[in-house]
Amino acid sequence: MGALGMGLAAPRLVSASAVGDSVNTDADPDFTRLLSLARVPSLSLAVIERGRTRTQSVGVRRSGEPEPTTADTVYAAASLTKIVASYVILGLVHEKRLDLDVPVHRYLPLPDEDETSKAITARHLLSHSGGWRNWRFDATQKITADFAPGSRWSYSGEGFFFLQRMAEQITGTAFATLVRTRVFEPLGMAQSSLAPLPTLRAQQATGHDGRGQPLPAADNDPAPVLQQLMAARGKTMEDARIEDLEAAQRTVAPTRAALPVFLSINAAASLLTTVHDFTRFLQHLVAPSRPSPSSAAIVSSMMQPQIRGNDAIQWGLGVGLEDVGRSRYGWQWGDNPGFKNFCWFDPSGGRAMVVFTNGDRGARVYERAVRALTTDDHPGFLWA
């Protein structure tokens, strides 16, 4: 097991505890050493095994400061957001408010008109096979399909943001509110939001660069302006629709286009959550019995292959898919500046795992954590 040593290696977790209980980090010096070698201040993880969950948190929320990370520390989930967003979008499909195979331009005008993009459907956007690039960073960049939709895989945050636009158009509700009412509140995820809520800041982990230094605060952060804008209307940041996000962005950076990559509530990457909370969502995905037939249907549809990436990786509706032994795993990595995360889940086996880290070298940490605690090696590590 390399640097992890014997303290954490086990084919399965033999003992388990309720969500929120933590393993004694003092008994795990190998993780502390691994974080130090990788220059990553902390990790927070959970492993689910047939209804039982064990969590572990090691390190500090910010380098040079004493506050330890816990199962209730708030991390930027980065692209793990996409799994939650996909669950919401597929809920609209199940309710027959959205058709996976109707071209999306019939719901909303395309960002840029091109003949190839007119064939893009929600199925293509959820499976990253629509042909759009990942993100635009200036207004001169156009969003047009680079290949025939459905013919191959190419990761696209822009595609997920367009699904956010569609969901708001269909429901008349801000996307962050949709996620709260459809996922966070039913599952008791009280410390999670797609919006940068002030109430989460006190427990938030700071992102760090590859040298282990805290990342500076973002220039022209639109969050304070958005908060003021919504408060003036007697609403919260979660009530902000895309036009509100764009208005806040234009206020803080009037010379820069208010493109999706800059907006503070984003179906592709803006989730703030804790291991305690995100584990509740994973438990829901792998539960043998769910509160309604619709939730089981949603999870089943997520796990259906849509497009092949390589010999080991396919993509379902909103999640990567990999076959390891007899199990089919859903998985997703998260890669925001200062935060590197990974999760996998196996609905048929009732197993799942998530690892959050707050450092740019965190992928080295989460790979070793997954291998040490489960003995599984995931093709997604090489893909990511």
From TrEMBL:
Q: Where is this region: Disordered?
A: 202-221
- PANTHER family xrefs: BETA-LACTAMASE-RELATED, PTHR43283:SF18
Where does the record place the Beta-lactamase-related domain?
A: 39-370
Please report the name of this protein according to its UniProt entry.
Beta-lactamase family protein
